[in-house]
């Protein structure tokens, strides 16, 4: 008998017989005991179901919460007639989190976030971070965030309170060094940027826009402090992630001489220590992304011992083992932070994601990571919906609890039951298989698939970083492989149409997944059109362009209609590429 529990318990024995929970006074049949005989862990618990009733043993409240989560899953799986069993269980990582990017074009509504938190808590996730650059409703900077949508102070307070109720720590996450492009576009703040103008990237194929604060400008720290002053009182967490990753501009402008004198690593580290003092003065513990400090490992030894390094990496072969060992050797508390691999893919690249999630869990467990944070980014406008990320959220939750146990067959069953609420199972199967569809194209690239970047490629003259490869893929992939990929997407869409979600939430997730699949279909069609143009097949190219315009216009209409069900503001920053591709097609038909 399969239990379809996620995470999979450390020890589960199915016994003979069943117990039927009474309809009247069901709680009377559940015995709850705080005892030292429960597994020796703050979240450890034992759950026994016999023919006489249910008994939960625990040491601390968190263990009781974990046991209740398991019991709820059992009730959803079996109803009131439960199998007799014994479970002893505890987690590998004390902190098990999900980080959702809300700064690249998709800011979820409060209702969406409340729904997300409740579902994540049912998978024993106990931490949620919302990656923020400019999308908190800062009073002085409405002009910066208005067109994007932003979470208000009141919305954060409501979400924070609900997260506490379901056992989740809502950790503030405000980048406070790099990734501040839209703040630095503001005339009042331009002077705080390391640079004031775009510059040629090292690879010469895109422009970098100013994103990094000048650490030596006298106005920088007061500006950061003003953001923290307004943001942090809305959270009850003892932790604060200040970001600090990818400070590309550092040493190229205002701090150039300082970096030449002291070294770029030291200048970065000194500002990081200033941020640490700011956070510590508020009685909070600082988290920071670990990528820059890893470039100068000697500085790791100088980190404040309460600073938490967030060791991120998103490829299947990321050297988590090597990097985790460095933080562990220096006795620096750290998380491993893999990702869902959904960004710039529309449908995911699940082959990479599952390997990345597993590698992080293995290295984190081996070297004593205090946390596991599964990150879900939105590079390139964040057109992929939550429906695409859910298989990876659930897989990450499973590995964060039990780093050696992930059964992908039971994963789909649990997703169907608890997320998509689809008794047919077809939404989960389609979402899972669509995440592998890109493999039929026969090409690989970091942080993208052609299915995601062909349709979303920015106009070449803009020379943007994200999706810059998109309009080049057609020359590297055969028409045969494109057609095979298109057929696979259409096959999974046909399965989606036969699904029957039993809730409004499940129906919206199914619609979102189908919209993402339709966009990925258009990436295939765009490449076929590009190949026809390149081959001089004018009549074929014109026919494909006319069809493409019709389909993209319908897709844009449907995408815009679905958007407000789950998201704030408009699709302005999420899907402008639909119009770009329409214009590309029209240029060919005129």
Question: Topology of this structure?
Answer:
Blueprint: E1 11-20, E2 30-34, E3 45-50, E4 53-58, H1 61-78, E5 81-89, E6 95-101, H2 110-121, E7 127-131, H3 142-145, H4 153-165, E8 169-171, H5 181-184, E9 199-200, E10 207-208, H6 220-231, E11 239-241, H7 256-262, H8 264-281, E12 285-289, E13 308-312, H9 320-329, E14 334-337, H10 350-367, E15 371-376, H11 386-401, H12 408-418, H13 426-434, H14 450-456, H15 479-497, H16 504-534, H17 538-566, H18 577-589
Parallel strand pairs: 2-4, 6-7, 6-15, 7-8, 11-12, 12-13, 13-14, 14-15
Antiparallel strand pairs: 1-5, 3-4, 3-5, 9-10
Q: What does this protein look like?
A:
- The structure is a single chain.
- The protein has 590 residues and is of the alpha/beta class.
- 43% of the residues lie in helices and 13% in strands.
- It has 18 helices and 15 strands.
- The strands form 3 sheets. The chain has an 8-stranded parallel beta sheet with strand order 8-7-6-15-14-13-12-11.
- Helix 12 crosses helix 13 and helix 16 packs antiparallel against helix 17.
- The longest helix is centred in the last third of the chain and has 31 residues, at 504-534.
- The radius of gyration is 25 Å and the shape is globular.
